Amino acid sequence: MPRPGVLNTIKRLAMRPHSLDDAGVRNLLARQIVRFSFLGILVASVVALFVAKDKEEVARLILASLVPLFGTWVGTVLAFYYAKDSLQTATDSTIRLVGKSDPLSPTSTVMIPRSDIEGKKLAAGDDPNTLHLTDIRSDMEAARRQRWPIFNADDEVTYVVHKSTLDAYFAAHPSESAPPTVASLLAMPSLASLISAIGFVKPTDTVSLARTVMRSVPYCNDVFITASGEKNGPVLGWLTNTMLANIAS
Predict the structure, then answer these.
(1) Which positions, given as ranges, span the membrane (predicted)?
(2) Rg (the chain; Cα; Å)
(3) Strand 120-121 to 235-240 pairing
């Protein structure tokens, strides 16, 4: 006949079908199964020891049987409680990395948040055009980045310098008497258009719209997210052409 505890568990599941979600039911069942299984084994062991003639031998047999069993149970329960969240975290990270997001998802769900964006942040009154290209290249190499956003003191993005743009400039100017600066890039129309080709969207705009904005700006490979979706506003996040290309259409 079922134990009162088992009956209470069944009654709790039957009388409150809507009070527990799927995770709650699994947690309850896991606890009850382990609890009553442990009690059952304990009772069986006590009975076996009580009726056995060779109690020492029976004790060894019981110990040899129960230790691996309990170890398996502990591992199973730990996996039950922790593996799901770990798997979900890993899945979310993988989805973000490979870009298998819905194109109708808000950009805020797939963007690189501002706190994770590496780049050059200027102080108040600093002129981005005076930044030395060699310093920018050194910073990019140290951070192992292929593109380097430049932000003003208000955290607004002014330029995005790509490694390929720097390589093109230095290839065209192998030796210069004065250190080249961002102004040097701006003096070359073909390169000026590259570092200034930036799109902007709002956090609530869809990934699909971000793609459309990127296509609408010649040579654009970077879309930044601001509260207003306009250039004049602190950056909240960043979407690169690589990220958008990897998101399922």
Answers:
(1) 33-52, 61-83
(2) 31
(3) unpaired
Per the listing, tokens 């793609």 go with 211
Residue 13 pLDDT grade (very low, low, confident, very high; cuts 50, 70, 90)? very low
Return the residue matching tokens 């199964």. 33
Distance CA 105, CA 82 (A): 28
Q: CA-CA distances (angstroms) from residue 15 to 7, 27, 35, 58, 196?
A: 12, 17, 22, 43, 64
pLDDT digit string, tens, across residues 85-117: 555 555 555 555 544 567 889 999 999 999 999
Which DSSP category does 65 fall into?
Answer: H
Q: What is the pTM of this model?
A: 0.61
Q: Is 219 left (phi over 0), alpha (psi -120 to 50) or beta?
A: left
Domain assignments of the chain as residue spans, ordered by start: 4-93, 107-246
**How far is the C-alpha of 204 from the C-alpha of 246, rounded, in Å?**
20
On whether the 107-246 domain is CATH 3.10.580.10, my answer is yes
Phi, psi of 149 (to 5 degrees): -70, 145
DSSP assignment string, 205-248? SBHHHHHHHHHHSTT--EEEEESSSSSSS-EEEEEEHHHHHHS-
Q: Read out DSSP for 72-87? A: HHHHHHHHHHHHHHHH
